[in-house]
Design brief:
- The protein has a six-stranded mixed beta sheet with strand order 7-6-8-5-9-11, sandwiched between helices. It has a five-stranded mixed beta sheet with strand order 2-1-3-10-4, with helices on both faces.
- It is built from twelve helices and eleven strands.
- The chain has a domain at 157-241 and 279-361: D-Maltodextrin-Binding Protein, domain 2.
- Helices cover 49% and strands 15% of the residues.
- By secondary structure, the chain is an alpha/beta fold.
Length: 365
């Protein structure tokens, strides 16, 4: 009888333990079924195609992870403003962020290289060169985040309200909106730079706070600046800019390895996609500007190039001197960037490729 009682008791204990274990496993499985929810703060409004592309990234991650990851996009700086975006990612105010590093003066010393005068004329090329630079030198300025990918626009143009710029001397005395290292270039060309974010530029232009700005052509349509400027000048030398898409380091490290792999593979594609959008908008911006009444597009002839190059040469020299003093191989980096510009320019797809991709994937029919 005692043996029978012991057997019944043992069976009861086993069933109890089995039930507890099954419950724990069931609860664990249920927890693992819950999607990973992330936030994405971007400087672009949702209506801008760069903002639409940010949403496309969120949708692609959701699709490729079969809904295991859900990313909520916060456009137009509604979660963190453009200048505070990067710190917002570091502090976890957003899990993912996209903005322009050059809005934070001195924080991204190597990235400032993209606002040095160069031969960049395509956003697709900028993205390729920026990612190459990051991968070769493992930029210390990004050590506090996990970089998903890097990209950027093509060359800047001069747009003005009332004063046409046909030669270098026409720059003298003008107050022009610029940002980051481009302010040094504008000053070297004879104008007075006024630093402000892209979100502030329309009001400043429309109210005459500034006479014009130094920015990529896409702003003429994407930010509606073509509505408030009368002249657009394409100078013989110019600068570019750059942007990051980065993730909070702890959030990245907490992702399962297979999810990390999907993020990495998807990110590798999106640098090109942003390049397509930059090129699409550059063409669309110029075409939009030309479609408006009483507008003039001015192209500075090539024979004036030496004068413009001489004016900005000290800017490049100062960049090399300043960054070398901070322990960076600035001259080497600049040489590498110029070499990669030549390499990728020879390989860039035609503008028609960019337009086709954007129209098929982002433009509403």
């Amino acid at each position: 009888m005692k043996s029978k009682k012991r057997f019944v008791f043992a069976c009861g204990v086993f069933l109890l333990l089995f039930g507890i274990t099954a419950s724990v496993v069931s609860m664990s499985e249920a927890a693992s079924d819950k999607p990973i929810k992330l936030s994405f703060s971007t400087m672009f409004p949702r209506a801008h195609l760069q903002g639409a592309l940010n949403q496309f990234f969120c949708d692609e991650i959701a699709r490729r992870t079969n809904g295991r990851v859900e990313i909520t996009l916060y456009p137009a700086g509604t979660l963190t403003s453009a200048p505070k975006n990067f710190d917002g990612v570091i502090k976890g105010l957003s899990d993912i962020g996209m903005s322009c590093p050059l809005y934070v003066a001195g924080r991204f010393p190597v990235s400032e290289i993209f606002e040095m005068p160069s031969e960049i004329d395509s956003g697709w090329v900028t993205g390729k060169v920026y990612n190459d630079l990051y991968n070769k030198y493992k930029l210390e300025e990004y050590k506090d985040v996990h970089v998903l990918y890097l990209h950027g626009p093509g060359r800047n143009v001069l747009s003005t309200r009332t004063v046409p710029i046909r030669k270098l001397s026409d720059m003298k005395g003008l107050v022009l909106r610029a940002s980051g290292g481009a302010t040094s270039t504008i000053k070297a060309l004879g104008a007075t730079p006024r630093a402000m974010s892209m979100g502030e530029a329309y009001a400043a232009l429309s109210k005459g706070v500034v006479e014009g700005q130094f920015a990529v052509p896409e702003t003429l349509k994407g930010w509606r600046h073509g509505d408030v400027v009368k002249y657009v000048t394409i100078p013989p030398i110019s600068t570019s800019s750059c942007q990051y898409v980065a993730m909070n380091k702890k959030k990245w490290e907490a992702l399962p390895p297979d999810i990390q792999k999907i993020f990495t593979e998807t990110s590798a594609e999106f640098s090109d996609y942003h390049g397509y959008v930059w090129e699409y908008y550059d063409k669309a911006g110029v075409e939009y500007f030309k479609s408006l009444p009483d507008r003039e597009l001015i192209v500075i002839p090539g024979d004036q190039r030496p004068e413009w190059e001489a004016a900005v040469a000290p800017v490049i020299e100062e960049y090399i001197k300043d960054k070398t003093a901070k322990g960076l191989p600035a001259k080497e980096m600049l040489g590498y960037v110029n070499e990669r510009i030549q390499y990728w320019t020879a390989k860039k797809p035609g503008t028609e490729v960019s337009i086709k991709w954007v129209e098929e994937n982002l433009v509403e029919k």
